[in-house]
Amino acid sequence: MTGSSQQAGWCKKPTSCTDARATLKVVRKTTYTIVLLTITAVAGATGTSDVSATVGNSCVLTCPSKPNITMVTWKISPKVGGPCTLGYRADQNKTDRTNCSDSMNWKFRPDWDPALEIWQVGIDHDGNYTCEVVATEGSFHTTYHLTVLVPPRLTMYCDDHGNPMCKAMAGKPAAQILWVLESNSTPKEEGHDNGTVTVLSTFTAYSTNVTNTTCIVSHPAGNQSMTIACHPPGKLPFVCLVFKTPFSPLFMH
Fold first, then answer.
1. What is the phi/psi pair of residue 203, to 5°?
2. Residues 58 and 142 occupy one common structural domain
3. Which residues form the Ig-like domain (predicted)?
4. Cα distances (Å, whole numbers) of residue 250 to 33, 60, 182
């Protein structure tokens, strides 16, 4: 009886043993896949987040707030100028800063909330911001890539041939110019040393009966529109009416 039981075991048939081995392989593969997906998810969570702020506004970058923090360090690498750091050590209850301008500092007490605040964001604040937190439960870090938005200045005028001209000056990134009426115009871009771009578009009407022409400037920092009436040389002077939508600054905390 005992021998018979040992011989039978939990595999009653050779085919069942084969099925069991196949099932075990599937389980192993599934477990391996789950582990890989978990690693991928963790790696994705520690990646870089893209944020934006409109020039002249303030911007707050958050940092993992953990209990029993022992050290916090903000490492800032702007596109223009050298890197800077803000640091806090709990054992000394002390903060320090290296090469950081007065425009950025802790928003609150770093032992309570290690968020970073930038006052009056400027173009030179473009860059990477990494917060590293050391606590009793481990180390954590968050990285942001900050893009500073500069709203363009919109102007419209009539050229010597009576064609409407729409110019979005010194925007960052480059603005998009659209016309309410259909036009075959191709915008021209001019880059500047500070990273801003001026876009110029000439309205070319398919019909000669067009009078009032509206230009729409689309930009991440807000949209604007302007209307103008141009006349050929020797005709009545043009009349310019301005309609602007308020800017809607985009900045993330």
1. -80, 125
2. yes
3. 114-229
4. 39, 12, 30
